[in-house]
Amino acid sequence: MSSIPVNWKELEAAFERNAPNMSSYLDLETGKILVFVDGVPEDEQRRAVIINDEERYLFIDPATSREQYCWMEHFVASIEDEDLQERLVIAIDGKGAFRRFKDVLLHYPHERERWFNYRSDKLHAYINEWITEKEIETETPPPWGTVELPEEEENELPKPLLGSMSPAEVLRRQAKELIDVIPAVDLTSALAFLEFLRDRGSAALTVQGQEAIKRGSTNRP
Predict the structure, then answer these.
(1) What pTM was estimated for this model as a whole?
(2) What is the Cα–Cα distance from 72 to 157, expressed in whole angstroms?
(3) What is the C-alpha to C-alpha distance for residues 39 and 46, in angstroms, rounded to an integer?
(4) How many domains, the chain?
């Protein structure tokens, strides 16, 4: 196989792109990255042509959500600040973990920057391994070079707070117990606040959040 002129920026984006309705291929002759979206007639027709030419077009295996979640877990385990670590353990539990994880790190710029660097190294090492495995020769080496990942200790995340329950499950139980004792007249305000957190996340708890609570108060029965 001859060397190909890979567009490294586009290749990196393809490996990050793990949306279930999108797929990417590397043209082994031109080095171009081809992206297709399910349900788009033009894309469906183009993909039908290239998938039968396996010698020229190579499917790009992006880093899966599970793979990236493992990166996130390893990062959380490496945090020395116990309070922040506990917040992140709770944040990454359940659906919406990636968004909540980012929301928490917004308030910790140093750790946020460390996460970006850590994730970038993980992704670049993943790409390098894929290129080696597929025996692809490129005209230029990747701009990030050879990535030497440090050996990670098998640090365990904090144990559940109660028995087999996760920290998030404990907090949800506590929230439900609070709901049970809140006077009925205040439930509208409480629900307005909870709906705001559900839709926007804790990082958006600004003036808009306060306004949402006030609206709930004015709409009391």
Answers:
(1) 0.69
(2) 11
(3) 12
(4) 3
